[in-house]
Design a protein that fits this description.
With 132 residues, the protein is mainly β. Helices cover 0% and strands 61% of the residues. The chain contains no helices and ten strands.
């Protein structure tokens, strides 16, 4: 069970973004990290999630980037009080990496970038076991 304290959360302009990472599997050559995001609209206006600019940099200097429209092909609309959950995975050769970036959110025909919480992928810091 995931405890609320295991999430990193950031809030700006009544938009709340919560994030969590977990090690899904590991072997001698790679580590499969999973990550979860929940984007909550606590504003009084309807918003639309239009894109993301996510980066992963590992301790070997490798850099991965996802700057794309939508979330798994969706451009979700969120009315006040609604939320959107997103999960994905990142296969890394390294045991340690950081995940950082932003979400692009449109409100009243204006697109703003909202920083996501920075996640640390570090096997030595894991509180939870590997999920198989």
């Amino acid at each position: 069970m995931i405890e609320e304290a295991d999430f990193l959360t950031t809030e700006s302009d009544d938009i709340i973004i919560s994030a969590r990472q977990t090690l899904v599997s590991e072997d001698s050559s790679s580590n499969l990290w999973g990550y979860y995001f929940c984007i909550e609209n606590q504003s009084d206006e309807k918003i639309q999630l239009v894109g993301k600019d996510w980066n992963i940099t590992d301790d070997r200097g490798n850099h991965y980037q996802d700057s794309s429209a939508g979330f798994n092909g969706e451009l979700p609309d969120l009315a006040p009080g609604e939320y959107f959950e997103f999960t994905s995975m990142a296969p890394l050769a390294s045991e340690n990496a950081v995940f950082y970036g932003s979400c692009k959110i449109a409100e009243n025909n204006t697109v703003k970038e909202f920083k996501i919480p920075t996640l640390s992928f570090a096997k030595k810091q894991l509180k939870n076991p590997v999920i198989n």
